[in-house]
Amino acid sequence: MADDDEYCAPAPATGPRPAEGPPFAECVLCRKPTEYPESHRGATLCPVCEWQEAQRTACSG
Question: Where is the segment annotated Disordered (predicted)?
């Protein structure tokens, strides 16, 4: 049987690494700088919009 601490441990982050310095990509919702480089592909969100999006999807059922 697996150890409870091992079972409940969060999964390692697999997303893109934050940029070390400018230029940063703009948030697609509010146009503020994000933690990601301009070369990052896909929709980039600032930390605030990313958190709000996570709240919306968590509550959507």
Answer: 1-22
Dist CA 49 CA 61 (whole Å): 20
User: CA 20 to CA 17: how far, in whole Å?
Assistant: 9
Would you kindly state where each structural domain of the chain is located, as residue ranges? 21-61
Q: Would you state the pLDDT for residue 59? A: 76
Tens digits of residue pLDDT in 12-51: 555 556 556 678 899 999 999 998 998 888 889 999 999 9
Backbone angles phi, psi at 34, to 5 degrees: -105, -175
Q: Residue ranges of the alpha helices (H) in the chain?
A: 4-8, 47-59
CB 36 within 8 A of CB 18: yes
